Amino acid sequence: MTTQSLHALDWAILAAYFVILLLIGVWASSKSKKGSGKFLAGNSLRWHHIGFSMWGTNVGPSMLIASASAGFTTGIVSGNYAWYAFVFIALLAFVFAPRYLGSRVSTLPEFMGLRFGQSTRNMLAWYTIVTILISWLALTLFAGGIIIRQVFGIPMWMSAFMLLAISAFFTMLGGLKAVAYTNVYQMVLLIVVSATLTFMGIYRLGGDSFTGGIAVLANPDIVPSEYWKLFQPNTDKDFPWLPILLGYPISGLWFWCTDQSMVQPVLAAKNLSEGQRGANFTGWLKILDVAIYIVPGIVCFALLKTGFFGNATIDPDNAYMTLVSSLFPVGMVGLVLAVLTAALISTIGSALNALSTVFTMDIYVKNIRPNATQAEIARTGQIVTIIGALVSIVITVAVDNIKGMNLFNVFQSVLSFIAPPMAAVFVMGVFWKRCTTLAANITLTFGTIFSIGTGILYLWVIPGAADHIHFMMLSFYIFVVLIAEMVIVSLCNKAATEEPKVTVLRERPKRDVIVSWTLLAIVMIALYVFFN
Hints:
Blueprint: H1 8-31, H2 37-40, H3 47-58, H4 61-74, H5 80-83, H6 86-103, H7 108-116, H8 118-152, H9 156-205, H10 210-217, H11 241-258, H12 260-267, H13 272-305, H14 319-327, H15 332-368, H16 374-399, H17 407-431, H18 437-461, H19 471-492, H20 511-530
Helix pairs in contact: 1-9, 1-15, 3-9, 3-12, 3-13, 3-15, 4-8, 4-13, 4-17, 6-11, 6-13, 7-8, 8-9, 8-15, 8-16, 8-17, 8-18, 9-10, 9-13, 9-15, 9-16, 11-17, 11-19, 12-15, 13-14, 13-20, 15-16, 17-18, 17-19, 18-19
Protein name: Sodium/solute symporter
Pfam families: SSF
InterPro entries: Na/Glc_symporter_sf, Na/solute_symporter
């Protein structure tokens, strides 16, 4: 797909999309409070804002492009990363959210400061900034750069700059409220267009019959039966079941419970019940990931097997865009580009807002200028947004040099080496009162060097390392080592940790919250039984 394939209607749709997005952003910003109120939207977010914002932050272009690629090559097994997540989203709703909201914190480093002291807060603030730059901004820009480069034929750095400029504009304009409100609009658009692509692909696969397309997908002579199994043997190179079972909880705990970009909408909830409902809504939305991200890749594979593309060969990383250019009529390309741009802006905007929040509240206000005015706080957040955007472009180039993995596993592997230190500190801090400040600080310094250093050796230095051990299993081993280190240091450290100042909301969950989470658990268990 090139710029030559874009017609007047495509450009009109793109223009209309950005106009509507701008109007929503301006409207939301006019309703957001000045100064630090931008960071948590004045604690006014309802469940649908929270759910769409969390899901929108999660489902960036890596989901659209990388998940379709994984579906093309391996089937729905990569859906574990979407469906297994409901366990950790529930952990956020019922274990972490009552502590976060009860302590009335703006950032997660602030929460850890209440638990372990100011030294831990400072370390965690810088750790969070680094992880946002790598895991959210650089990885998203990398995937987005691939898309924009394919469509417009411009260099990676220029496409990244374009995406960052748009996202930074909304972040500086209205803070989290503008990001959250535009996320609702963008995610509805994303669901509609991606669901339409899936439906049209199945319809065309069945010879203009949807039920016929389902029958083709169920034919093991066309689509191998292993494509419909969530658990693959341990001999599988990309998705063995044991590393996923043991390793994903480390990434899942960090990602859904302790990552500022993901958790910030819950911190901005109107109350605990709204936060729990919003987390539950995110869990329901995650079910869609397989249908609108992974299944299109399987459909593309089936169309290739049935001769729909003739003698053409298809790069798995291009499966999604191949389906778009082959199935959508002229004019719909603009709508797809709007959807992809929506996913990019959603993820990048949330990450930039989290980055500016952590630096401004945990470093600038706490350590540099405690008496800063609201205007100074807002201006600092805007400056940090711009600087963070520029730094992330540089990191994107390094990610582009990871070789030997499919696009989906490139993303997951990078995250699996960032997760263990943060996950270990939060688990021990919340679940073990005896854990000391010294143990937490050693993990955040030397543990981080150990974990990320191992990742650098695994991904860039040691050739063929992935053939000997899966990155998820390695992440699990690192987590176990860090937990053991924290236990030993805590037991040997005679100086007791600072008295925790964490306040826990003891509210009994509302009946609708319990019912909705129970139904979600039943549905998820049923899906795992059906697809095995």
